[in-house]
Structure formats: C-alpha cells, structure tokens
Write a structure and sequence with these properties.
This protein has 130 residues and is an alpha+beta fold. The protein contains 3 helices and 4 strands; from the N terminus they run H-E-E-E-E-H-H. Strands 1-2-3-4 form a 4-stranded antiparallel beta sheet, with no helix packed on it. Helix 1 packs antiparallel against helix 2 and helix 2 runs antiparallel to helix 3. The radius of gyration is 21 Å and the shape is elongated.
C-alpha cells in the first residue's frame, strides 16, 4: 500500500471517529432508566443526555426538553459537556490541518518536509481529540 493511500485511509478513519464523537455528543442516550407504574400502560423510558432529557412513553410518544440551567447540572455532566466540546473542536482543527498536509492536496507543494510536518500536526490533533 502506497504512502498516499495509507494517508487517505488514516484520514478517513479519523474523520469517521470524529463523526461518531459528534453523534455521541448530540444524542440523549447517555443515561437510561425506566419506570413502570401500576399498569403496563403507564410505562415510561427516561433518557438523559448532555444537552436534553427525554421521556418516551409506551404509546410511542416522546417528549424532550433542554436542560434548564448549566449550573443546575451535576458536575460530571458539566465536565462531560466541556470535554466533548474540546474534543470536537480539536478534531475539527485536525480535519482542516490534515487536509492541508496530505500528499493529494495542492496546498504547500513547494516543500515536502513542511507538508509532512503539517500532516503530523493534524494527526497529533486527532490523537488529542481522542
């Protein structure tokens, strides 16, 4: 496998990981619980995420609401929100820097050493993002 193909494969894997991290940050299934009342008709599934809480009833109805205040959340939720945002930002900058440093792009073709250092910096940003 040539260097360019290996570089492109690594970039696509890192891009897929960033998209998966974005999906994990947005989805409200971080903590799940359920409540069944006296009758099975009143069963409720509760989902809590970093940004909202959702309740799904056994009839199929789903109600979601955003968290009211940042300060009213538990410390671990606040910390997770901050770390996910930092991770997504580092991954975004890794995407941009890696594209500039890849062999298949025309940006900075004059010096291959500088171009490879830019690609390594993009990889470091991806590792820090993870």
């Amino acid at each position: 496998m040539g260097g360019g193909l290996r570089e492109l494969t690594g970039y696509l894997a890192a891009l897929g990981g960033w998209v998966a991290a974005l999906a994990a940050a947005v989805l409200p299934q971080w903590r799940q619980s359920s409540y069944a009342g006296d009758a099975i008709i009143t069963a409720v599934g509760l989902h809590e995420g970093l940004w909202m809480s959702c309740a799904s009833q056994s009839t199929g109805q789903v109600q979601c609401r955003l968290h009211d205040s940042l300060l009213s959340l538990d410390v671990h939720i606040q910390t997770s929100r901050a770390l996910m945002i930092i991770s997504l930002l580092l991954g975004f900058f890794g995407i941009v820097v890696s594209v500039v440093g890849m062999k298949c792009t025309k940006v900075g073709e004059e010096d291959p050493v500088t171009k490879s250092r830019i690609a390594v910096a993009g990889g470091v940003l991806f590792v820090l993002s993870g």
